[in-house]
Amino acid sequence: MNIEEIYQYCMGKPGVTEDFPFDKNTLVFKVCGKMFALCGLKKWESGDKSINLKCDPQWALELRSAFTQIKPGYHMSKKHWNTVHLNNQEIQPGFLKELIDHSYDMVVKGLAKKLQQELSNEL
Length: 123
Prior knowledge:
This protein is of the alpha+beta class. About 40% of the residues lie in helices and about 25% in strands. The mean pLDDT is about 95.
């Protein structure tokens, strides 16, 4: 997936907004104000295509041991975030979508029940 496809996929989810809270080059996707995905746009332009995604800590470890392109989250909590490098074909688009969905779902599960209900009403 390219950055435009990732953008469209993330923005298509209920309650998602884009933000640049750190600098003008770090695109952050949030659900109800909580981060679930980050992309360094300058890195993408230079060919270092990656995305940071929230992940269940146990699954994060399993993913890192199974895929050379999945590393502990760059500049993030290493326990809860992975950096997924997309420079080769190891991470297929369908699997990347699964990882994005998982990240989104992790954040939604942590929201207040009222916000979760509002999001489910948007479906």
